[in-house]
Amino acid sequence: MAFGAEELRVLRRALALALHPSPASAEDVQDCLRLAEAVNEAAREGARLRAFLLADLARYRAALPGTAAGYLTLLEEALGAGYRPQPDDHAALRALRGNPVAATLLTRCHALGEQDVRTRLAVRTVPASRTGASTGTGVAGTRIRLTALPGGLAAGAPARARAGAEDPGKKPAEKPAEKPAPQPVRPKDRPIPTPGEVFPPRRKPPAPPADPPRQLAAG
Hints:
Blueprint: H1 5-19, H2 26-62, H3 68-80, H4 87-95, H5 100-135, H6 159-166, H7 195-198
Helix pairs in contact: 1-2, 2-3
């Protein structure tokens, strides 16, 4: 993004007002508002151009190796615009290593990848080293205050048992012996019945009535 002479004048005036607050004229205010709108529009246009460039780069990469020349040109332009190569770009450049331009871009992509890794490691290491130096240790965040977990002590335990647990010199109070649970009342044991009571003797059937005497008729 480049500024013209008039835009630089407005920017210089805006910086002077920011460093040394003083009443600004209506003309200065209008100039600053126009400059801010122009900068916003340029940023939006740059984002659109970047999106188009990355879309073209993806299409050319998908059509390799027939589009090697256009792909290498677009990749070099994207790297100049702040693009960070993806794993697909590294694979494509390794496949085109016979091309001198591809070999140069592959070396450049490797250097950018190593730079990104160093930056991420520095961001992660610097705050930890500062914290360790302030606490006298080399590792940050390793000391964690321990707190009691819920449920560690019985809900119904008396306060004296808790005090005895905290003070090792005192013996914990003995718990009273638990009373046995009352047994259910059972009916008195009945005597075991005899076989005769269980199986009574069968009664004999009554004898049939005797036939009445017959009288013989006389000769």
